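Backbone-to-sequence.
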């Protein structure tokens, strides 16, 4: 058993007859009254996100997990196929277990958290940044750069990302997977 002082991003806990992954948390110590921890929990079975507040010192049921590197192989309907990079075993995960499925390209290495009790995959952690090629973008208008103007672009995985006006088709860009936003252009 862990307590609220052990709460951290990515921790998997058993709560309300389900397994949840903590995606955000904030320790709050008000001037009057007891401290508490405000959390955002994502169900690993349904993908539903809920907000919950734990009082300070509350006991939480932590789930022991192992993290393994898996390579994304391909998508089939709503299922994603991955291969363990160590023993080459394959697993199939539903789209709900992925946070940024539209930014996942074949061959990408991700971290998969596996429950040590029953060897069931719990969640997929994407790398912080992915490099993707822009397949479609409207040309930027010259002289329209006085502000941080952006335009929509489509990358090779089919995801839509707002990019600066100077980005053209064929450019490779680095995308922040947590925010799903453009980070920088990659020079080759």
């Amino acid at each position: 058993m862990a307590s609220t002082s052990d709460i951290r991003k990515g921790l998997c806990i058993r709560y309300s007859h389900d397994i949840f992954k903590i995606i955000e948390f904030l320790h709050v110590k008000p001037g009057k009254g007891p401290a508490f921890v405000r959390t955002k929990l994502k169900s690993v079975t349904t993908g539903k996100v809920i907000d919950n507040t734990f009082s300070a010192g509350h006991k939480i049921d932590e789930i022991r997990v192992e993290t393994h590197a898996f390579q994304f192989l391909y998508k089939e309907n709503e299922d994603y196929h991955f291969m363990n990079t160590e023993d080459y075993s394959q697993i199939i995960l539903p789209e709900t277990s992925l946070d940024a499925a539209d930014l996942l390209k074949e061959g990408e290495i991700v971290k998969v958290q596996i429950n040590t009790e029953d060897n069931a995959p719990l969640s997929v952690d994407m790398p912080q940044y992915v490099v993707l090629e822009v397949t479609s973008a409207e040309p930027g208008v010259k002289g329209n750069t006085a502000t941080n103007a952006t335009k929509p672009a489509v990358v090779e995985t089919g995801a839509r990302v707002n990019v600066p006006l100077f980005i053209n088709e064929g450019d490779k860009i680095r995308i922040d997977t947590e925010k799903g936003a453009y980070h920088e252009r990659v020079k080759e």
